Amino acid sequence: MRKRTSNKTLLIGGVAALVILGAGGLYLAMGRSDPPAAEGAAAEGEASHAEEEGGHAEGEAEAPEGFVALSAAQAQAANLVVVGVGRGGGAETRLSGRVEPMIDARAAVAASVGGRVERVLVAPGQSVRIGQPLASLVSGDAATFRADADAAAAQSEVARQAYQRNSNLADQGVVARQEVEASRAQLLSAEAAARAARARSSAAGSPNAAGRLSVNSPIAGVVTSVQVGPGGFVPQGGVIAEVTNPARVELVFNAPPHLAALVRAGSTLRVSSPAGDFDAVVTGVAAGAGAESGATVIRARPTGATLPPAGSAVTGAIVTGEAAGGLTVPTEAIQTVDGASVVFIQVPNGFQLRPVLVGRQAGGRTEILRGLDGSERVAGTNAFLLKAELAKGEAEHGH
Length: 399
Description:
Blueprint: H1 2-13, E1 18-22, E2 25-29, H2 37-62, E3 67-69, H3 72-77, E4 82-84, E5 86-87, E6 91-101, E7 106-110, E8 115-120, E9 127-128, E10 133-138, H4 140-172, H5 177-203, E11 212-216, E12 221-226, E13 233-234, E14 239-244, E15 249-255, E16 268-273, E17 276-286, E18 296-302, E19 313-320, E20 327-330, E21 335-337, E22 340-347, E23 350-355, E24 357-362, E25 365-370, E26 377-379, H6 384-398
Antiparallel strand pairs: 1-2, 3-23, 4-26, 5-20, 6-15, 6-19, 7-14, 8-10, 8-13, 9-12, 10-11, 12-14, 15-18, 16-17, 16-19, 17-18, 20-25, 21-22, 22-23, 24-25
Domain CusB-like barrel-sandwich hybrid: 107-243
Region (Disordered): 35-61
InterPro entries: BSH_CusB (IPR058790), CzcB_C (IPR058649), MFP_Cation_Efflux (IPR051909), RND_pump_MFP (IPR006143)
């Protein structure tokens, strides 16, 4: 009886054997709740995958969407130019023009008095500086001007001495004060005559006592032609030589008459020439200066660029009707991503994509209607490299 009870107790408190059909086949669970080895491995794999997804999500949170990591050294190596947001906006007008010598870049050097050409000191193609002699003349008229100047100077000296003598005698009570005043008036008249004589002599080329004088170049440049030869006679006003400064050139555009009221000195132009594109600044606007058409003439000079030779044809684009509160960026800064216009704004350690609403385009710049406040610095030249880098990163993430 005791033995049966003991066996019953053992059966109740012993190990119960169950046959369970699992995914991996039949296995025997001896009263344990532990999963089989295959299922445990699967569970560990799922847990590891979940951890990887979690870590990947954390990595994505660290880099915001549209961010391109780029150091300053990498940006410089890629020739990536960062520019500020400009102010303006308006309509673009295309102009045709040419490169012309400035008004002070060409000189026809003439003789101020008639005379015989004694020597010619330059030849065509020779470079000259300001004040350099071009030819030497001998002139009877010039000799007369010099003699008149010397005589007037002598008369002035005589009048000065007479005034000083009368002034001393008047202090001693020898002569009347009226004589002193009269001698002073004669001194002033003599000094005025001497100044006039010296001015005539200087205008004649400051000849010496023999009437020999030099004709000098008023500008620096290159002698383009010589009109006289040794031994010849040149009349007063006759051209001795022509000098041109090839570096003194400017842009001249013919514009519609209505632009005279819209364009001001200081306005910017985008110019296209055989030598390339460059920016220019308006230096003057002359309404109706066109000889035949009455068109407005706009003169401009380049900013940081060398103009092609005089006579070269150029075209210009000028923006008129500018809005004071408008924002603009270089047109090359605008990129298209997923069908939307964007710019890349410089941020610490890289660039951040920013969607924008664009407006009119003129003079190589594009108006920004919404998306910027004007304080940003955006990628300009080679901004497409950031777009390519962003697309590359998205492709790698998708893979």
